Amino acid sequence: MALSRPVRVLAAIAALLFIFSILQMLRTPVKLTPPSFGSSKDNPKDQDAWRDPNLDPADEPSEPLRRVDGDNYSPNNPNSDRINATILSLVRNSELPQLLMSMRDLERTFNSKFNYPWTFFNDEPFTEEFKRRTSAETAAQVRYEQIPKEHWEVPSWINMDLFEESANILKEQDVQYAHMLSYHQMCRWNSGLFYKHPALADYRYYWRVEPNVHFFCDIDYDVFRFMEDHNKTYGFTINLYDSPESLPTLWPETIKFLASDANNKLMHPENAMLWLQDKERRPKHNEKANGYSTCHFWSNFEIGDMEFWRSEAYEKYFEHLDRAGGFFYERWGDAPVHSIALGLFEDRNRIHWFRDIGYQHIPFFNCPNSPKCKGCVTGRFTDGEAWLNKEDCRPNWFKYVGMN
Fold first, then answer.
1. Domain assignment of residue 272, yes or no
2. Domain residues for 159?
3. Does residue 150 contact residue 142 with C-beta atoms inside 8 Å?
4. In degrees rounded to 5, what are phi and psi of residue 36?
5. Coil, strand or helix: which one is 398?
6. Alpha-carbon distances, residue 149 vs 90, 104, 380 (angstroms)
7. What is d(CA 89, CA 188) in angstroms, rounded to the nearest whole number?
């Protein structure tokens, strides 16, 4: 039900008072310690010298790499070399055609060799057609899981009238999906609830796959064993700037969380704080996001270790954000939430750019220079409008962290 004009005025005043309180809080210094870096040669500051490293020949990551040898990854081998990992996807029944396209690409390039199980999630029961057609695309085990209502429903502390008013404001600022409640629910679930599903209790690693994505390059090593053998926590392909209008209080809430000594001590000494706070390349983004660069790993592709999400640091951080309400009153996405947490609480050297995995989620690409790849243009970042190229935040990641 629409609110009357006096109530809207009161809501606006309340919002201004909230922003004022945030600004007052920010005057209290919080010790945010960025790590020390090597020489300027290792971490070039010259943004004008940026050349997409995908133009250079791309090799596989360094050894050790686990490969197919005989039947060691056979789907029916109870003693296979697979570890406790799954490919997972949050998908609706109506997205079946788009999902089949994604499955076919990933099966062709990777999983027909390694046969890791697929786990599908939906807030509604899957149809028999969905089960029949997806299971026909893979020789691997397939599981179909429904999200518990308590993980998907809007939390009791969210005021739905305020949600509608907030969505109107977001829409005025051209923030996409502002009024789509299910999108807000999806972002919250992907941020801090997916790994709590009972179906994932025995898994440690996951590869997130969405409908309507493409994979272009043959992957001849076990990516999950790579993560384990090389002590990696998180892998990405694309690194972007977010819409600052969608998350103006996310960084202030993060600062608020870190204000206590106990939470501040959760920060990793080898963090990526400088990447999170950079304001040189997109100063307006930093200003509108109140100190956050808005750089994030585009989480429609992520290969991760769920032990990080299950850690004390992340659980406490997510609980703080969840109670703050920004998943509904703003449009906090799982990509910036995951990225900020990784940038604060994890060793930056445990975050890996999978430069050798060719990938597209419209309108962006990761397209390596490799004979293993076909179907994408080497070094192309986007096939959309030219202005989309400035959304690439990889230069900042490579500047502050490197290409490990």
1. yes
2. 52-400
3. no
4. -85, 150
5. helix
6. 15, 31, 41
7. 15
Helix segments in 60-109, DSSP class H: 96-106
Question: 316: how many CB neighbours lie within 10 A of its CB?
Answer: 16
Question: Angle at which helices 5-26 and 250-258 pack, to 10 degrees?
Answer: 50
pTM, 2 dp: 0.91
> What DSSP character marks residue 84?
S
Give the span between the Cα atoms of 33 and 350, in whole angstroms.
18
Cβ atoms < 10 Å from Cβ of 20: 10
Q: Is residue 229 part of a domain?
A: yes
Relative to beta strand 234-236, strand 351-353 is parallel
97 found inside a domain: yes
CB atoms within 10 A of CB 220: 15
- What is the rounded distance in angstroms from the CA atom of residue 349 to the CA atom of residue 353? 10
Strand blocks (E) in 200-353: 205-208, 213-215, 234-236, 239-241, 295-297, 302-305, 351-353
CB-CB neighbours of 94 under 10 Å: 11
**Each residue's pLDDT expressed in tens, for the chain with a length of 404 residues:** 454 554 454 455 455 445 444 444 444 455 676 665 433 333 434 445 689 999 999 999 999 999 999 999 999 999 999 999 999 999 999 999 999 999 999 999 999 999 999 999 999 999 999 999 999 999 999 999 999 999 999 999 999 999 999 999 999 999 999 999 999 999 999 999 999 999 999 999 999 999 999 999 999 999 999 999 999 999 999 999 999 999 999 999 999 999 999 999 999 999 999 999 999 999 999 999 999 999 999 999 999 999 999 999 999 999 999 999 999 999 999 999 999 999 999 999 999 999 999 999 999 999 999 999 999 999 999 999 999 999 999 999 999 999 87
- The CA distance from 242 to 299, in Å, is 12
For the chain, how many structural domains are there in total? 1
302 is an active site residue: yes
Whichever domain contains 291, its CATH number is 3.90.550.10
CA 307-313-318 angle, 5° bins? 95
Q: Which of 137, 165, 253, 302 is catalytic?
A: 302
Considering the domain boundaries, does residue 95 fall inside one? yes
